[in-house]
Amino acid sequence: MPKTSKRSGASRPKAHAPRKRFGQNFLTDQGVISAIARAINPHKEDNVVEIGPGQGALTDALFESGCAIKAIEIDRDLQSQLRVMFFNRDLTLFNYDALKFDFNDLSNEENDLRIVGNLPYNISTPLIFKLLTHLPIIRDMHFMLQKEVVDRLAAQPGNKHWGRLSVMTQVDCEVEHLFDVPPEAFYPQPKVQSAIVRLTPKATSHRPECSREQLRRLVQLAFAQRRKTLRNNLRNVIDEAVMQNLGIDPACRAETLTLDQLMDLSLALPEAAI
Ligand code: SAM
After folding, report:
1. Is 59 in the same domain as 178?
2. Does residue 42 have its Cβ closer than 6 Å to ligand 1?
3. Pocket of ligand 1 contains residue 97 by CB under 6 Å
4. Is residue 98 lining ligand 1, measured as CB closer than 6 Å?
5. What pTM was estimated for this model as a whole?
6. In this structure, is residue 228 part of a structural domain?
């Protein structure tokens, strides 16, 4: 956990009233901003993509490395502020909804994308699911998220947070919960704790014969009602005998299964269920 500090002149927004609908909780704590930049450790040649630069708190810290930044910001009113603030920096701004943005447009042959963002709470999970479909062009991702989402990303089997998000992320990424960030680090202050997570795509694909689409479907079904048994959740798609042949107890709950057991089950899904 980094030391929190308020540098004089820390960027408390004045001209721009934070918009709730865009999840605008701006980082103001210079100690936390520096700790995030250190964790990302950008280099001049890196292909850095920031989602939701807001008023540029993190952007500014990342620019200290001399890297170029491509940033996707949905709030048009923040664009002119960012352009003025970074007039002498290599900033390419896209006024776009990150959920609809085509990240393939940002890739280049030499450098995979380094994606960063203090993500608004309402888009974080769908955005991560979207980015998981672009892993071949991504080197790493650093996000500030609600701590509860980071707990789900990093959860292990048997934990109450182990579920769709953990499985679909961990199958292809290393997940590191780096540190927590308290509400006081933002303006306005969110009601919940936040945390920084690093997601790094795995160098080699784990069991490539198991299609991710098939796994996604299995996990959706198996965790549909968390308190129910596999027997119940998978009733119409996988026979109990098939589960038993795989060494899986039909009376257990999906949250007790390992990633490989879920992958085994996904391979048993009939095509019609996918
Ligand atoms: N990076 C800034 C910081 O740390 O102070 C701002 C973070 S604030 C939590 C989230 C930012 O994402 C806001 O600037 C908001 O306007 C922007 N945003 C919200 N929804 C977005 C979307 N769908 N696509 C792109 N940007 C979005």
Report:
1. yes
2. no
3. yes
4. yes
5. 0.93
6. yes
In this structure, what token pair is assigned to residue 94? 């896209």
Q: With a 6 A CB cut-off, is 143 part of the ligand 1 pocket? A: no
Residue 14 lies in a domain: no
Instruction: Read off the pLDDT of residues 73-130 as tens digits, 9 standing for 90 and up.
Output: 999 999 989 999 999 999 999 999 999 999 999 988 788 999 999 999 899 999 999 9
CA of 24 to the centre of ligand 1 (A): 6
**What pLDDT does residue 1 have?**
55
123 SS3 class: coil
- Sole residue written with tokens 């960063």: 116
- What are 41-53's pLDDT values in tens digits? 999 999 999 999 9
> Nearest 5°: CA angle at 149, between 145 and 150?
75
* 191 and 218 belong to one structural domain: no
Who's near 109: CB < 8 A, 6+ residues apart?
none
Please give the residue range of the domain that contains residue 194: 24-201
Both 242 and 140 in one domain: the answer is no
Q: Quick one: 117 and 253 in the same domain?
A: no
- 74 CB near ligand 1 (under 6 Å): yes
| Sequence letter at residue 14 | K
- Which domain-ending residue is among 178, 201, 224? 201
